[in-house]
Amino acid sequence: MFKKDFPIFENNKNLVFLDTAASSQKPKKVIEDMTKYLETSYANIHRGAYDLSMDSSLLYDKAKEKVAEFLGAQSHSEIVFTYNATYAINFIARSLVKSKILNTGDTILLSKADHHANIVPWQIIADEYDIKLDWVELHEDGTIDYDSLEEKLPGKKLLALTGASNVSGEVSDVTRIKKMIDTLEEKPLFLLDGSQRFPHLFTDVVASGIDFFIGTGHKVMSDTGIGFFYGRKDLLRAIDPALCGGGAINKVSVEGYLPAGLPFRHEPGTPHIAGAVSLLSALEYIDSIGGYETIEKYEDELVAYTFEKCKNLPKGVKLIGGDENTPRMGVFAFTFENHHPHDVAEYLADQNICVRSGHHCAEPLHNALNIGASLRMSLYIYNTKEDIDAFFEAMDTFFKTF
Ligand SMILES: Cc1ncc(COP(=O)(O)O)c(C=O)c1O
Predict the structure, then answer these.
(1) Bridge-partner residues for 227, per DSSP?
(2) Of 36, 93, 172, 279, which is most buried with the most CB atoms under 10 A?
(3) pLDDT at 247 over 90
């Protein structure tokens, strides 16, 4: 239904693209809007009195308004553009310690289900500032153990958790987590890595009590090099940015500098303006097809269809994560008893089927499951049941042949 909107499929006949969890394809609208912007309106933002600069600034700010709307945020000044999710989390981690919101002796609660992007930045500041890390336990299938989360939450300064796993596809229950946080007198900050969640599901950051929400443009049909984070306004104000320079200051003298207002104090240097335009365009595309509601309905069908197919997996093939009763998105990772996932991925690549093999930047999760690597197929709105059939048929043939 939506495949026709994506030129990559016109230009690559018989392409079966099942690697959106790594990066999504772009609809024609995004490609055209970016090109049009570069051809007609491009200039640096917030610095020129001339029309091109004003137009660029308007588009850049409009992109933030759109992201704010997609998150239920109160204001576009709570949205900070970054280069990707990894940059955003590193920036927040460094800024929290610089601002003494996180201090030596504090403990941060993390999960092994997370992507390295939401682990390593915390490990770096833990090393540097003697901050402690604690880990939410996982169930045997790799899903989050909410009893462990509840038990470990008291006394923590920050919970940094994935919004949806890029391996098991599990969608974190933010309502349940908010309830746990609400019972605590000393409330930890709640950071949700929404990199995999934002393209597929609506998250109301205010209703969910989220203090920081992270997103990355290339997984939601925009260009690479544009990401964002939402930060609660009082927190964004309290944070002294760890990185600064041009564009992020109000005043500089030889004695020192005064950071700019929100959100620009957190965006040093010239940003990826065309990337912001691509993000705006991608979110407008989502609006044009009926919003998150359409995406969720369409993908729920694909997920249910994939689970049907998983009932007849070849011998020795196992699906990671919870069953169909677990809140899940269209991310499915498999392990093989007698074959390396790379060999299966290569065989699928020969049939023009694009999947991922490896640890998917989630080594702690793979370690917890006692596996070295897995093969991941992931879905988005341009996928069809035929794509899913092609994947399972090719797997069947592989296991019959080798
Ligand atoms: C859950 C999750 N978080 C963070 C990231 C990092 O995104 P980026 O490489 O755009 O910074 C990814 C990318 O795969 C991811 O899946």
Answers:
(1) 82, 216
(2) 279
(3) no
